[in-house]
């Protein structure tokens, strides 16, 4: 039967309200974390729109803020995270518009808009607080890229006391002890993370292995790159039963740079080899390759890989650079 | 040119041969009819799927969400991208130049830019939607909140509670 063309539903007339809904109501709605992105919001027409309307039959979209939320969030996704967060200061409409931003790139440049070394040093504490803040507020939905690039910790002498870093770093992923992180990044596929661990005494010997819970926090992760700087090379391995093993089906490529053969790193690599059942490539880059004095450390790393890791590489995915 | 998939594919293939000559009528919400080539209309995923589903091509497609001025501009984009080839470097460069001029003109009239963005979203014209949203994002880039308010004519409407929160957030970001 030849019906008239399929209906392209007419848009509903805009509901004239002052600001969509009262602020507390909207906030409560936003903060339940399931605010649908495509929920359309329409605001009252401004007087200028009426003038406009007199010339044209339909032109209710004259106001940037009255664009539907799915379009706004598309626009937000084209901004840097910093700029998107800044939008929250523009008006009530944008207070939470950034929380669906797809890229969480925590580099100093992304967050501070500067790569100047001096400024970085000054703002180290702020940097950690900022990451914590953003992770707390972010919806966790729709994140496709996550990068924690943190050169600031590389020179231990120049920066604030390690204890605060340890505390805050673990805070980021909410993993005191071995509880699971409450924050889930269900769309996260690529994760690059540069981390510095100080001495085992301060961080606890489980600190490195705790990174295994990244797999739990981001179950669809495909690429994982950990660029590690571990000061303590003789760290004991964590206790055997400290972590729960379960298979992860999405991780395909893992890379650990700055490997120096400490117990935590070995345990983490072994954890990945054992549990990432679809792993295609596991690359290990030992620290300070063949440079003068550190020869010994490099050789030690290689020895540890041969002894502790190669026997666990049942699928032949391991590559040493 | 993308064709329908699955069961519709064979029929679509046959029709595709004459699609160069087949015309489709799009009607704005003011009742004004625009006759376009099928290739042009297929830039819209919304229309494409209706055509492929054996929709009523002859009767045309009423677009109750799009006014004449907006539709004319959208069709201008679709004609350029649907009717012209983009195989050689030169052809692609010409298309890129068209996009650049097209969006520059729209950028000068923000209200119209939003209308076209809305229409591109509604008709699922991916290239056009990417073009317009990128243009809006570019306007935001590098501006302070105050400058953004000015650029978009946004009124400051944050409550005292918001300001309190922002102050607290400011210590972080």
From TrEMBL, chain A:
A Pfam cross-reference name: LRR_At1g61320_AtMIF1
Domain At1g61320/AtMIF1 LRR: 182-310
Region annotated Disordered, chain positions: 1-27
InterPro entries the record matches: At1g61320/At1g61330-like, F-box-like_dom_sf, F-box_dom, LRR_At1g61320_AtMIF1
Occurrences of domain F-box (ranges): 65-98
SUPFAM superfamilies listed in its UniProt record: F-box domain (SSF81383)
PANTHER family xrefs: OS01G0553400 PROTEIN, OS02G0105600 PROTEIN
Annotated protein name in UniProt: Uncharacterized protein
Organism: Oryza meridionalis
From TrEMBL, chain B:
Composition bias type Low complexity, residue spans: 1-12
GO biological process: jasmonic acid mediated signaling pathway; protein ubiquitination; ubiquitin-dependent protein catabolic process
Record InterPro entries: SKP1, SKP1-like, SKP1-like_dim_sf, SKP1/BTB/POZ_sf, Skp1_comp_dimer, Skp1_comp_POZ
Pathway stated in the Swiss-Prot or TrEMBL entry: Protein modification; protein ubiquitination
Domain of life: Eukaryota
Gene3D superfamilies, per the entry: Potassium Channel Kv1.1, Chain A
This protein's UniProt keywords: Ubl conjugation pathway
SUPFAM superfamilies: POZ domain, Skp1 dimerisation domain-like
Coiled coil residues, start to end: none
UniProt domain SKP1 component dimerisation: residue ranges: 126-171
Domain SKP1 component POZ: 23-81
Disordered: annotated span: 1-22
Keyword Repeat: no
Function: Involved in ubiquitination and subsequent proteasomal degradation of target proteins. Together with CUL1, RBX1 and a F-box protein, it forms a SCF E3 ubiquitin ligase complex. The functional specificity of this complex depends on the type of F-box protein. In the SCF complex, it serves as an adapter that links the F-box protein to CUL1.
Family stated for the protein in its record: Belongs to the SKP1 family.
Subunit structure: Part of a SCF (SKP1-cullin-F-box) protein ligase complex.
Protein name as catalogued: SKP1-like protein
């Amino acid at each position: 039967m030849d019906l008239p063309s399929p209906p392209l539903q007419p848009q509903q007339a805009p509901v004239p309200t002052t600001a969509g809904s009262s602020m507390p109501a909207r906030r409560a709605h936003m903060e339940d974390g399931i605010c649908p992105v495509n929920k359309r919001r329409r605001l009252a027409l401004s007087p200028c729109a009426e003038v406009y309307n007199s010339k044209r039959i339909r032109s209710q979209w004259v106001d940037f803020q009255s664009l539907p939320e799915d379009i706004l969030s598309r626009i937000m996704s084209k901004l840097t995270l910093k700029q998107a967060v800044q939008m929250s200061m523009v008006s009530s409409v944008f207070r939470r518009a950034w929380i669906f931003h797809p890229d969480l790139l925590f580099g100093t440049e992304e967050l501070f808009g500067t790569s100047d070394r001096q400024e970085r040093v000054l703002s180290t504490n702020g940097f950690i607080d900022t990451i914590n803040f953003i992770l707390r507020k972010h919806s966790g939905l729709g994140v496709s890229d996550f990068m924690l690039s943190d050169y600031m910790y590389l020179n231990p002498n120049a920066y604030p006391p390690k204890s605060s870093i340890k505390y805050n770093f673990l805070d980021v992923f909410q993993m005191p002890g071995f509880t699971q992180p409450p924050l889930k990044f269900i769309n996260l596929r690529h994760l690059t993370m540069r981390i510095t661990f100080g001495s085992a005494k301060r961080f606890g010997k489980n600190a490195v292995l705790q990174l295994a819970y990244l797999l739990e926090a981001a179950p669809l992760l495909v690429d994982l790159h950990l660029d590690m700087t571990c000061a303590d090379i003789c760290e004991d391995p964590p206790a055997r039963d400290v972590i729960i093993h379960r298979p992860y089906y999405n991780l395909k490529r893992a890379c650990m740079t700055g490997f120096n053969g400490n117990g935590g790193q070995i345990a983490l690599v072994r954890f990945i080899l054992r549990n990432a059942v679809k792993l295609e490539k596991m690359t290990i880059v030992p620290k300070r390759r063949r440079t003068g004095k550190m020869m010994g450390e490099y050789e030690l790393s290689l020895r540890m890989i041969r002894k502790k890791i190669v026997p666990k590489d049942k699928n032949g995915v391991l590559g040493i650079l | 040119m993308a064709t329908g998939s699955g069961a519709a594919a064979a029929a679509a293939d046959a029709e595709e041969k004459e699609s160069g000559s087949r015309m489709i009528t799009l009607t704005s919400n003011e009742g004004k009819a625009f006759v376009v080539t099928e290739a042009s209309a297929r830039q819209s995923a919304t229309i494409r799927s209706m055509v492929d589903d054996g929709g009523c091509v002859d009767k045309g497609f009423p677009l109750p969400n799009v006014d004449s001025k907006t539709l004319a501009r959208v069709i201008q984009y679709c004609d350029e991208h649907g009717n012209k080839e983009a195989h050689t470097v030169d052809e692609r460069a010409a298309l890129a130049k068209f996009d650049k001029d097209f969006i520059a003109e729209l950028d000068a009239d923000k209200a119209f830019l939003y209308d076209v963005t809305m229409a591109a979203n509604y008709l699922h014209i991916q290239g056009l939607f990417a073009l317009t949203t990128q243009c809006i994002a570019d306007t935001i880039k590098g501006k302070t909140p105050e400058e953004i308010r000015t650029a978009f004519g946004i009124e400051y409407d944050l409550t005292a509670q918001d300001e309190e929160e922002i102050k607290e957030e400011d210590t972080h970001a």
